[in-house]
């Protein structure tokens, strides 16, 4: 056995050119003293040949080779009986055919194709493709010789395509390398969203071209949440997704399925609506105030928008902080019917509207006073309420238990009480009346003067007053 490890090997054996019957080689010179190089070249037929090359050479052209054959070529350095390790390269006479086509990233309308280098380098590449059994639809693409991949686009879904690639060098064309690939099924298209509520959305679409078994609708919150999906029959083109969270952004995807094959997905985003506040009520109603109370929605609320209207007057808009669940209305008009509408808002989202109605109470007369008090009379005056009034109910009673109730015209704002008892404490009660409604009671008190020995003159009758009752 020859010793091989004592000599340095020639390195970087490369093919620089080839023809139908020759292959040109170069290599890096071995370091150290040698006698010569030995080149061994073996065609695919298996019959090896050898030649020796002077030690000062770093290139050589093998001639008289078999045309269109693959060769395994090796070179060693020799000195006496010593031989270095081999440096080996594969080469072809004529064209090295493209060994195979590799298909990847297959969709319903496109496919990526890659291939190996031809040798020697081609002048250009020609790629042809067509649906099987439809050669009249063959498409041809001329590619730069440096290209090692191509993307075919605009293909028909679920269709088998025959693809062949040839290398062209001058006037010589290599044998085509052929392959076939079937495109995937196409997805549905034109996805749209409608009928958005706080916990559901309707998804609609147009069907794909290729036949398929069913649709798969998938959905999940874009922030945090699990992926849910539903199987939808291939005969429908709309589906309502339910049991969603309110005021939440969802990613919805849709694809078609045939057996174990799935189309690519089409996706869209949608915000569910905010849920409504509930149980809006008005309590603690007075002539000028009312307390609004409600229950907050599940959604996070930035603020509430309250619109307060009465009669045909344009509504007053009130913004309330989103953390609140009540609001005190003030400065209302007495005995007025109000409508309150309300909705929640968060960023661009708004809830549905809820409403309630209430009526403020009839306001009482104000500044009830007693003046010009004598032994048997007193002048009672007041300011009228803001609300429309039908009449007043005036009651005055003394500490001895006597009591009288009078109906006073709505136009009057005073009345003189006469025939009173001397040196007596009186309390006057006054309220406004409209239909069956009564205002709150306002009151005042006074004391008549002491009896004098002078004779008493008869009292004149009261004007504009009806006596309802007398308790003595």
TrEMBL record:
Spell out the CDD domains in the cross-references. Answer: FN3
Instruction: Describe the location of the Fibronectin type-III domain by residue ranges.
Output: 9-98, 99-186, 187-276, 277-363, 364-452
**What are the protein's UniProt keywords?**
Disulfide bond, Glycoprotein, Repeat
Q: Which domain of life is it from?
A: Eukaryota
| InterPro entries assigned | ECM_Regulatory_Proteins, FN3_dom, FN3_sf, Ig-like_fold
Q: What is this protein called?
A: Fibronectin type-III domain-containing protein
Native organism: Eschrichtius robustus
